[in-house]
Design goal:
CATH superfamily: MFS general substrate transporter like domains
Largest sheet: 2 strands, antiparallel
Order of helices and strands: EHHHHHHHHHHHHHHHHHHHHHE
CATH topology: Growth Hormone, Chain: A
Shape: globular
CATH architecture: Up-down Bundle
CATH class: Mainly Alpha
Strand order of the largest sheet: 1-2
Helix content: over 70%
Number of domains: 1
Amino acid sequence: MNATINAPTTLVHPGRQADPATVRRAALAGLIGTTLEQYDFVIYGTASALIFNKLFFPNISPTAGILASFSAYAVGFLARPLGGLFFSRLGDRLGRKYVLVATLMLMGGATLAIGLLPTFEQVGVLAPILLVACRFLQGFGSGAEQSGGATLLTETAQIGKRGRLAALIMTGAASGTALGALAWIAAQLLPDEQLMSWGWRLVFISSIAVTIAAFVIRRKLHESPVFQELKQHQQGPRTPVREIFANGKKPLFIVMFMTIGISAQSYTYQVFMPSFLKNNVHVDPTFIPKVLLAGAICGGIAAYGFGWLSDHVGRKPVYISIVAALVVLPIPTFHALGTGSHLLIAMVMIVGFMLACQGAVGVTMSYFPEIFGSHYRYSGVTLGREFASIFGGGVAPLLCAGLVSAFGGSWIPVAVYMMIMAATVVTASTLAPETRDRDLTIARNATDRPEVAA
Protein backbone atom coordinates (compact mmCIF):
# COMPACT_ATOMS: atom_id res chain seq x y z
CA MET A 1 0.00 0.00 0.00
CA ASN A 2 1.07 3.62 -0.39
CA ALA A 3 1.24 6.35 2.19
CA THR A 4 2.04 10.00 1.68
CA ILE A 5 4.95 11.08 3.86
CA ASN A 6 7.75 13.60 3.77
CA ALA A 7 11.22 12.68 2.66
CA PRO A 8 13.47 11.63 5.58
CA THR A 9 15.10 14.60 7.25
CA THR A 10 18.54 13.03 6.94
CA LEU A 11 18.44 13.20 3.15
CA VAL A 12 20.31 15.90 1.31
CA HIS A 13 18.64 19.28 1.68
CA PRO A 14 17.56 20.90 -1.59
CA GLY A 15 19.86 23.83 -0.91
CA ARG A 16 23.00 21.75 -0.45
CA GLN A 17 26.26 22.79 -2.08
CA ALA A 18 27.41 20.26 -4.65
CA ASP A 19 31.05 19.24 -4.62
CA PRO A 20 32.64 21.04 -7.62
CA ALA A 21 35.07 18.22 -8.42
CA THR A 22 32.28 15.64 -8.40
CA VAL A 23 30.13 17.82 -10.65
CA ARG A 24 32.99 18.37 -13.10
CA ARG A 25 33.74 14.65 -13.27
CA ALA A 26 30.06 13.81 -13.80
CA ALA A 27 29.73 16.49 -16.48
CA LEU A 28 32.81 15.24 -18.32
CA ALA A 29 31.71 11.61 -18.06
CA GLY A 30 28.26 12.40 -19.39
CA LEU A 31 29.60 14.60 -22.16
CA ILE A 32 32.17 12.16 -23.51
CA GLY A 33 29.87 9.14 -23.18
CA THR A 34 27.18 10.83 -25.22
CA THR A 35 29.87 11.94 -27.66
CA LEU A 36 30.65 8.29 -28.32
CA GLU A 37 26.98 7.31 -28.59
CA GLN A 38 26.22 10.06 -31.08
CA TYR A 39 29.46 9.47 -32.99
CA ASP A 40 28.44 5.84 -33.43
CA PHE A 41 24.96 6.77 -34.61
CA VAL A 42 26.08 9.59 -36.90
CA ILE A 43 28.74 7.64 -38.73
CA TYR A 44 26.25 4.80 -39.17
CA GLY A 45 23.47 7.15 -40.28
CA THR A 46 25.75 8.95 -42.74
CA ALA A 47 26.97 5.62 -44.10
CA SER A 48 23.34 4.54 -44.49
CA ALA A 49 22.62 7.63 -46.53
CA LEU A 50 25.78 7.56 -48.67
CA ILE A 51 27.31 4.10 -49.14
CA PHE A 52 25.76 1.18 -47.24
CA ASN A 53 23.15 0.57 -49.94
CA LYS A 54 26.04 -0.23 -52.33
CA LEU A 55 28.14 -2.23 -49.87
CA PHE A 56 25.46 -4.35 -48.19
CA PHE A 57 22.39 -4.16 -50.47
CA PRO A 58 23.82 -3.98 -54.02
CA ASN A 59 21.49 -6.52 -55.63
CA ILE A 60 18.39 -4.29 -55.47
CA SER A 61 17.45 -0.96 -57.00
CA PRO A 62 19.03 2.24 -55.62
CA THR A 63 15.72 3.34 -54.04
CA ALA A 64 15.16 -0.06 -52.47
CA GLY A 65 18.78 -0.05 -51.30
CA ILE A 66 18.24 3.24 -49.45
CA LEU A 67 15.07 1.86 -47.84
CA ALA A 68 16.88 -1.33 -46.82
CA SER A 69 19.77 0.68 -45.42
CA PHE A 70 17.42 2.85 -43.36
CA SER A 71 15.59 -0.30 -42.21
CA ALA A 72 18.85 -1.64 -40.79
CA TYR A 73 19.32 1.77 -39.16
CA ALA A 74 15.87 1.47 -37.54
CA VAL A 75 16.85 -1.85 -35.93
CA GLY A 76 19.07 0.07 -33.52
CA PHE A 77 16.07 2.00 -32.28
CA LEU A 78 14.04 -1.15 -31.86
CA ALA A 79 16.82 -2.47 -29.63
CA ARG A 80 17.07 0.67 -27.51
CA PRO A 81 14.03 0.08 -25.25
CA LEU A 82 15.16 -3.52 -24.71
CA GLY A 83 18.55 -2.25 -23.61
CA GLY A 84 16.80 0.43 -21.58
CA LEU A 85 14.71 -2.18 -19.74
CA PHE A 86 17.77 -4.29 -19.00
CA PHE A 87 20.23 -1.58 -17.98
CA SER A 88 17.95 0.96 -16.30
CA ARG A 89 16.72 -1.69 -13.85
CA LEU A 90 20.35 -2.25 -12.87
CA GLY A 91 20.95 1.49 -12.74
CA ASP A 92 18.18 2.07 -10.19
CA ARG A 93 19.27 -0.93 -8.09
CA LEU A 94 23.07 -1.03 -8.34
CA GLY A 95 23.99 2.48 -9.39
CA ARG A 96 24.35 4.77 -12.37
CA LYS A 97 28.14 4.45 -12.70
CA TYR A 98 28.34 0.71 -13.42
CA VAL A 99 25.66 0.81 -16.07
CA LEU A 100 27.32 3.76 -17.82
CA VAL A 101 30.58 1.81 -18.04
CA ALA A 102 28.86 -1.33 -19.36
CA THR A 103 26.82 0.50 -22.01
CA LEU A 104 29.91 2.35 -23.13
CA MET A 105 31.85 -0.83 -23.84
CA LEU A 106 28.93 -2.48 -25.64
CA MET A 107 28.37 0.50 -27.93
CA GLY A 108 32.05 0.94 -28.70
CA GLY A 109 32.56 -2.76 -29.38
CA ALA A 110 29.59 -2.97 -31.75
CA THR A 111 30.76 0.06 -33.72
CA LEU A 112 34.26 -1.36 -34.04
CA ALA A 113 32.79 -4.64 -35.28
CA ILE A 114 30.90 -2.85 -38.07
CA GLY A 115 34.21 -1.58 -39.39
CA LEU A 116 35.47 -5.17 -39.64
CA LEU A 117 32.41 -6.68 -41.35
CA PRO A 118 32.65 -8.40 -44.75
CA THR A 119 30.56 -6.80 -47.51
CA PHE A 120 27.88 -8.39 -49.69
CA GLU A 121 30.43 -8.91 -52.44
CA GLN A 122 32.57 -10.99 -50.07
CA VAL A 123 30.03 -13.19 -48.23
CA GLY A 124 26.66 -12.51 -49.85
CA VAL A 125 23.52 -12.27 -47.75
CA LEU A 126 25.47 -12.95 -44.54
CA ALA A 127 26.86 -9.39 -44.77
CA PRO A 128 23.57 -7.50 -44.19
CA ILE A 129 22.63 -10.02 -41.48
CA LEU A 130 25.85 -9.26 -39.59
CA LEU A 131 25.31 -5.53 -40.13
CA VAL A 132 21.85 -5.71 -38.60
CA ALA A 133 23.21 -7.76 -35.66
CA CYS A 134 25.88 -5.16 -34.92
CA ARG A 135 23.33 -2.39 -35.27
CA PHE A 136 21.12 -4.20 -32.75
CA LEU A 137 23.97 -4.37 -30.23
CA GLN A 138 24.74 -0.70 -30.84
CA GLY A 139 21.15 0.20 -30.02
CA PHE A 140 20.95 -2.17 -27.06
CA GLY A 141 23.98 -0.53 -25.48
CA SER A 142 22.78 3.01 -26.11
CA GLY A 143 19.34 2.32 -24.63
CA ALA A 144 20.28 3.65 -21.20
CA GLU A 145 23.21 5.86 -22.15
CA GLN A 146 21.82 9.39 -22.45
CA SER A 147 19.22 8.76 -19.74
CA GLY A 148 21.89 7.50 -17.37
CA GLY A 149 24.16 10.46 -17.99
CA ALA A 150 21.27 12.90 -17.62
CA THR A 151 20.03 11.26 -14.40
CA LEU A 152 23.46 11.16 -12.80
CA LEU A 153 24.30 14.75 -13.72
CA THR A 154 20.90 16.13 -12.69
CA GLU A 155 21.18 14.38 -9.32
CA THR A 156 24.74 15.66 -8.85
CA ALA A 157 24.36 19.31 -9.88
CA GLN A 158 23.31 22.04 -7.51
CA ILE A 159 19.78 23.45 -7.71
CA GLY A 160 19.74 26.47 -9.99
CA LYS A 161 22.36 24.96 -12.31
CA ARG A 162 20.83 21.63 -13.26
CA GLY A 163 19.47 22.80 -16.60
CA ARG A 164 22.74 24.09 -18.01
CA LEU A 165 24.87 21.24 -16.62
CA ALA A 166 22.56 18.42 -17.71
CA ALA A 167 22.34 20.06 -21.15
CA LEU A 168 26.03 19.26 -21.52
CA ILE A 169 24.83 15.74 -22.35
CA MET A 170 23.50 17.15 -25.62
CA THR A 171 26.61 19.25 -26.09
CA GLY A 172 28.35 15.88 -26.02
CA ALA A 173 25.88 14.59 -28.59
CA ALA A 174 26.70 17.59 -30.76
CA SER A 175 30.40 16.85 -30.32
CA GLY A 176 29.77 13.30 -31.50
CA THR A 177 27.96 14.59 -34.57
CA ALA A 178 30.82 16.98 -35.26
CA LEU A 179 33.43 14.23 -34.89
CA GLY A 180 31.37 11.96 -37.14
CA ALA A 181 31.13 14.68 -39.76
CA LEU A 182 34.89 15.30 -39.58
CA ALA A 183 35.54 11.57 -39.96
CA TRP A 184 33.42 11.44 -43.13
CA ILE A 185 34.95 14.66 -44.47
CA ALA A 186 38.38 13.05 -44.12
CA ALA A 187 37.20 9.75 -45.61
CA GLN A 188 35.68 11.49 -48.64
CA LEU A 189 39.06 12.95 -49.51
CA LEU A 190 40.01 9.44 -50.64
CA PRO A 191 39.35 8.28 -54.21
CA ASP A 192 35.98 6.52 -54.49
CA GLU A 193 37.60 3.12 -54.96
CA GLN A 194 39.60 3.44 -51.75
CA LEU A 195 36.66 4.89 -49.84
CA MET A 196 34.46 1.95 -50.80
CA SER A 197 37.14 -0.67 -50.12
CA TRP A 198 38.77 0.38 -46.84
CA GLY A 199 38.19 4.09 -46.16
CA TRP A 200 34.73 3.60 -44.68
CA ARG A 201 36.13 0.95 -42.35
CA LEU A 202 38.55 3.41 -40.78
CA VAL A 203 35.62 5.68 -39.89
CA PHE A 204 34.07 2.93 -37.76
CA ILE A 205 37.34 1.62 -36.35
CA SER A 206 38.23 5.15 -35.21
CA SER A 207 35.50 4.91 -32.55
CA ILE A 208 37.92 2.90 -30.42
CA ALA A 209 39.77 6.10 -29.51
CA VAL A 210 36.62 7.72 -28.11
CA THR A 211 35.69 4.48 -26.33
CA ILE A 212 39.03 4.28 -24.52
CA ALA A 213 38.93 7.94 -23.48
CA ALA A 214 35.37 7.59 -22.15
CA PHE A 215 36.23 4.38 -20.28
CA VAL A 216 39.18 6.00 -18.48
CA ILE A 217 36.99 8.89 -17.33
CA ARG A 218 34.01 6.79 -16.27
CA ARG A 219 36.10 4.40 -14.20
CA LYS A 220 36.76 7.30 -11.79
CA LEU A 221 33.14 8.42 -11.69
CA HIS A 222 31.30 8.74 -8.35
CA GLU A 223 27.69 7.80 -7.82
CA SER A 224 25.29 10.75 -7.49
CA PRO A 225 24.70 12.04 -3.94
CA VAL A 226 20.96 11.39 -4.33
CA PHE A 227 21.52 7.72 -5.18
CA GLN A 228 24.09 7.28 -2.40
CA GLU A 229 21.64 8.58 0.20
CA LEU A 230 18.81 6.45 -1.12
CA LYS A 231 21.03 3.38 -0.74
CA GLN A 232 22.15 4.52 2.70
CA HIS A 233 18.52 4.70 3.83
CA GLN A 234 17.68 1.48 1.96
CA GLN A 235 15.07 3.24 -0.17
CA GLY A 236 16.04 1.75 -3.52
CA PRO A 237 13.30 -0.42 -5.09
CA ARG A 238 13.79 -4.10 -5.81
CA THR A 239 11.78 -3.81 -9.02
CA PRO A 240 11.95 -0.20 -10.30
CA VAL A 241 10.22 -1.01 -13.60
CA ARG A 242 7.25 -2.54 -11.76
CA GLU A 243 7.09 0.51 -9.50
CA ILE A 244 6.93 2.80 -12.54
CA PHE A 245 3.83 1.07 -13.85
CA ALA A 246 2.32 0.97 -10.36
CA ASN A 247 2.98 4.57 -9.32
CA GLY A 248 4.52 6.48 -12.22
CA LYS A 249 2.40 5.80 -15.31
CA LYS A 250 1.34 9.43 -15.78
CA PRO A 251 4.87 10.92 -15.93
CA LEU A 252 5.99 7.94 -18.03
CA PHE A 253 3.41 8.60 -20.74
CA ILE A 254 3.96 12.36 -20.61
CA VAL A 255 7.68 11.83 -21.23
CA MET A 256 6.95 9.40 -24.06
CA PHE A 257 4.68 11.81 -25.91
CA MET A 258 7.03 14.73 -25.24
CA THR A 259 9.78 12.70 -26.90
CA ILE A 260 8.26 11.00 -29.96
CA GLY A 261 7.85 14.10 -32.11
CA ILE A 262 11.20 15.61 -31.14
CA SER A 263 12.97 12.33 -31.86
CA ALA A 264 11.30 12.18 -35.27
CA GLN A 265 12.34 15.73 -36.12
CA SER A 266 15.87 15.21 -34.84
CA TYR A 267 16.64 12.11 -36.88
CA THR A 268 14.88 13.50 -39.94
CA TYR A 269 17.43 16.31 -39.91
CA GLN A 270 20.39 14.12 -39.04
CA VAL A 271 19.73 11.05 -41.20
CA PHE A 272 17.01 11.57 -43.80
CA MET A 273 17.91 15.06 -45.02
CA PRO A 274 21.50 14.10 -45.97
CA SER A 275 20.00 11.34 -48.13
CA PHE A 276 17.41 13.76 -49.55
CA LEU A 277 20.12 16.29 -50.42
CA LYS A 278 22.19 13.65 -52.17
CA ASN A 279 19.49 11.75 -54.05
CA ASN A 280 16.81 14.37 -54.69
CA VAL A 281 18.51 17.76 -54.63
CA HIS A 282 21.70 16.27 -56.12
CA VAL A 283 24.12 18.35 -54.08
CA ASP A 284 27.78 17.35 -53.94
CA PRO A 285 28.02 14.51 -51.37
CA THR A 286 31.18 16.04 -49.90
CA PHE A 287 29.11 19.08 -48.87
CA ILE A 288 26.81 17.04 -46.61
CA PRO A 289 29.25 16.22 -43.77
CA LYS A 290 30.28 19.90 -43.73
CA VAL A 291 26.66 20.92 -43.16
CA LEU A 292 26.35 18.33 -40.38
CA LEU A 293 29.54 19.69 -38.80
CA ALA A 294 28.25 23.29 -38.80
CA GLY A 295 24.87 22.19 -37.46
CA ALA A 296 26.44 20.15 -34.68
CA ILE A 297 28.69 22.97 -33.49
CA CYS A 298 25.81 25.45 -33.34
CA GLY A 299 23.51 22.83 -31.85
CA GLY A 300 25.92 22.08 -29.02
CA ILE A 301 26.08 25.76 -28.11
CA ALA A 302 22.29 26.05 -28.32
CA ALA A 303 21.79 23.05 -26.00
CA TYR A 304 23.78 24.71 -23.23
CA GLY A 305 22.09 28.07 -23.89
CA PHE A 306 18.57 26.65 -23.69
CA GLY A 307 19.53 24.69 -20.56
CA TRP A 308 20.80 27.91 -18.97
CA LEU A 309 17.59 29.69 -19.97
CA SER A 310 15.48 26.92 -18.42
CA ASP A 311 17.32 27.47 -15.12
CA HIS A 312 16.12 31.08 -15.14
CA VAL A 313 12.58 31.00 -16.62
CA GLY A 314 11.59 27.35 -16.20
CA ARG A 315 11.78 24.11 -18.18
CA LYS A 316 8.21 24.16 -19.49
CA PRO A 317 8.08 27.56 -21.24
CA VAL A 318 11.46 27.04 -22.88
CA TYR A 319 10.58 23.56 -24.13
CA ILE A 320 7.16 24.55 -25.47
CA SER A 321 8.62 27.60 -27.24
CA ILE A 322 11.21 25.47 -29.05
CA VAL A 323 8.68 22.83 -30.09
CA ALA A 324 6.17 25.46 -31.27
CA ALA A 325 8.85 26.84 -33.60
CA LEU A 326 9.39 23.32 -34.97
CA VAL A 327 5.74 23.12 -36.00
CA VAL A 328 6.28 25.80 -38.66
CA LEU A 329 9.94 25.13 -39.55
CA PRO A 330 9.63 22.20 -42.04
CA ILE A 331 8.07 24.14 -44.94
CA PRO A 332 10.72 26.90 -45.13
CA THR A 333 13.36 24.22 -44.55
CA PHE A 334 12.38 22.17 -47.60
CA HIS A 335 11.92 25.29 -49.73
CA ALA A 336 15.51 26.24 -48.88
CA LEU A 337 16.81 22.72 -49.54
CA GLY A 338 15.11 22.68 -52.93
CA THR A 339 17.01 25.76 -54.09
CA GLY A 340 20.28 23.81 -54.04
CA SER A 341 21.97 26.91 -52.56
CA HIS A 342 24.71 25.82 -50.19
CA LEU A 343 24.20 28.95 -48.08
CA LEU A 344 20.43 28.46 -47.65
CA ILE A 345 20.85 24.74 -47.04
CA ALA A 346 23.43 25.41 -44.35
CA MET A 347 21.24 28.05 -42.68
CA VAL A 348 18.10 25.90 -42.36
CA MET A 349 20.05 22.81 -41.34
CA ILE A 350 21.81 24.77 -38.61
CA VAL A 351 18.47 26.07 -37.29
CA GLY A 352 17.10 22.51 -37.35
CA PHE A 353 20.06 21.23 -35.37
CA MET A 354 19.82 24.07 -32.85
CA LEU A 355 16.12 23.47 -32.17
CA ALA A 356 15.31 19.80 -32.88
CA CYS A 357 18.57 17.90 -32.59
CA GLN A 358 20.15 19.55 -29.55
CA GLY A 359 18.13 22.49 -28.21
CA ALA A 360 14.84 20.84 -27.23
CA VAL A 361 16.53 17.61 -26.13
CA GLY A 362 19.03 19.61 -24.09
CA VAL A 363 16.20 20.99 -21.96
CA THR A 364 14.82 17.48 -21.35
CA MET A 365 18.13 16.31 -19.92
CA SER A 366 17.18 17.98 -16.62
CA TYR A 367 13.42 18.20 -17.21
CA PHE A 368 12.75 14.47 -17.49
CA PRO A 369 14.79 13.34 -14.44
CA GLU A 370 13.05 16.03 -12.39
CA ILE A 371 9.62 14.70 -13.42
CA PHE A 372 10.21 11.23 -11.94
CA GLY A 373 10.51 10.18 -8.32
CA SER A 374 13.79 9.08 -6.81
CA HIS A 375 12.85 5.37 -6.56
CA TYR A 376 12.61 4.81 -10.30
CA ARG A 377 14.10 7.92 -11.91
CA TYR A 378 16.65 6.16 -14.13
CA SER A 379 14.13 3.56 -15.28
CA GLY A 380 11.40 6.13 -15.87
CA VAL A 381 13.53 8.46 -17.97
CA THR A 382 15.01 5.57 -19.94
CA LEU A 383 11.76 3.76 -20.70
CA GLY A 384 9.91 6.96 -21.55
CA ARG A 385 12.60 8.13 -23.96
CA GLU A 386 13.54 4.82 -25.55
CA PHE A 387 10.06 3.46 -26.21
CA ALA A 388 9.30 6.82 -27.78
CA SER A 389 12.43 6.55 -29.93
CA ILE A 390 10.97 3.55 -31.78
CA PHE A 391 8.02 5.57 -33.04
CA GLY A 392 10.07 8.73 -33.46
CA GLY A 393 13.70 8.53 -34.52
CA GLY A 394 13.68 4.85 -35.36
CA VAL A 395 11.12 4.99 -38.14
CA ALA A 396 11.46 8.64 -39.20
CA PRO A 397 14.21 8.25 -41.85
CA LEU A 398 12.58 5.12 -43.27
CA LEU A 399 9.11 6.68 -43.29
CA CYS A 400 10.35 9.92 -44.86
CA ALA A 401 12.21 8.01 -47.60
CA GLY A 402 9.08 5.97 -48.25
CA LEU A 403 6.91 9.10 -48.48
CA VAL A 404 9.25 10.76 -50.97
CA SER A 405 9.31 7.60 -53.08
CA ALA A 406 5.51 7.14 -52.92
CA PHE A 407 4.77 10.75 -53.88
CA GLY A 408 7.14 11.02 -56.82
CA GLY A 409 9.94 12.86 -55.05
CA SER A 410 7.73 15.48 -53.37
CA TRP A 411 8.84 16.75 -49.99
CA ILE A 412 5.39 18.00 -48.97
CA PRO A 413 4.26 14.74 -47.24
CA VAL A 414 7.49 14.74 -45.23
CA ALA A 415 6.95 18.35 -44.14
CA VAL A 416 3.37 17.55 -43.08
CA TYR A 417 4.60 14.53 -41.12
CA MET A 418 7.21 16.64 -39.31
CA MET A 419 4.66 19.34 -38.48
CA ILE A 420 2.17 16.83 -37.08
CA MET A 421 4.85 15.20 -34.93
CA ALA A 422 5.91 18.57 -33.50
CA ALA A 423 2.28 19.53 -32.81
CA THR A 424 1.79 16.36 -30.73
CA VAL A 425 4.75 17.37 -28.57
CA VAL A 426 3.26 20.81 -27.93
CA THR A 427 0.04 19.14 -26.79
CA ALA A 428 1.83 16.67 -24.49
CA SER A 429 4.01 19.43 -23.02
CA THR A 430 0.99 21.35 -21.77
CA LEU A 431 0.24 18.38 -19.46
CA ALA A 432 3.72 18.33 -17.93
CA PRO A 433 4.45 20.10 -14.64
CA GLU A 434 7.07 22.78 -14.13
CA THR A 435 9.97 21.04 -12.34
CA ARG A 436 12.72 23.64 -11.98
CA ASP A 437 14.37 23.49 -8.54
CA ARG A 438 12.51 20.37 -7.39
CA ASP A 439 13.87 18.34 -4.50
CA LEU A 440 15.15 15.15 -6.17
CA THR A 441 15.57 13.16 -2.95
CA ILE A 442 11.87 12.32 -2.65
CA ALA A 443 9.76 9.77 -4.47
CA ARG A 444 6.67 10.70 -6.47
CA ASN A 445 3.74 8.70 -7.73
CA ALA A 446 2.24 11.58 -9.68
CA THR A 447 3.72 14.50 -11.54
CA ASP A 448 3.42 16.89 -8.59
CA ARG A 449 2.67 14.87 -5.46
CA PRO A 450 5.60 13.55 -3.34
CA GLU A 451 5.02 10.06 -2.06
CA VAL A 452 7.02 7.10 -0.83
CA ALA A 453 5.83 3.52 -1.09
CA ALA A 454 5.27 2.17 2.35
